[in-house]
Amino acid sequence: MRTQADPTFPAPRPSLQTILLPMRHSLLILASIVALTTVHAAAPTGTDARARELIQTLHLQLLPGESGYLGLIGQSAQTIPIDGHQLAVQSQVYYMLTRDRPVNYLHWLATSSLKAAQ
To answer: Domain limits at 60?
Structure first.
């Protein structure tokens, strides 16, 4: 017969409470993060419909090669030649990111485009 003093005797299994008690703070933090993520991940009602309404009302067009929607509000009558094209010195635009196009890609302005600013 084996006894607890016998090295081949199986060690007693720790209880679930013994395992979870030291982890209670970590589990509480994890549960809080999951709860907050769930709350903030829920989209407000009508967001997509409002985006479509603004795209139509403001005559926004998908910006090719980038992301988001662009609409020209106005531009100056004064123009300058850049690379053989007459471009407005100044313009105003609407630019909108949406849930289906949420990223604004960074890009460089061509050196020739900067000549007008110099």
So the answer is: 47-117
Distances, alpha carbon 88 to alpha carbons 8, 33, 63, 81, 99, in Å: 88, 50, 19, 9, 31
The tens digit of pLDDT for each residue in 59-114 reads 999 988 778 899 999 999 999 998 898 989 888 999 998 888 888 877 665 655 44
Count how many residues are written for the chain.
118
Residue tagged 């903030």 (tokens): 40
Q: Is the dihedral of CA 103, 108, 113, 115 positive or negative?
A: positive
Cα 105 to Cα 66, 67, 76, 101, 102, distances in angstroms: 6, 7, 26, 11, 10
Q: What is the number of structural domains in the chain?
A: 1
**Closest-CA residue to 116 (of 94, 74, 83, 75):** 83
Is the backbone of residue 91 left (phi > 0), alpha (psi -120 to 50) or beta?
A: beta
Is residue 107 classed as helix, strand or coil in its secondary structure? Answer: coil
- Whether residue 97 is contained in a domain is answered as yes
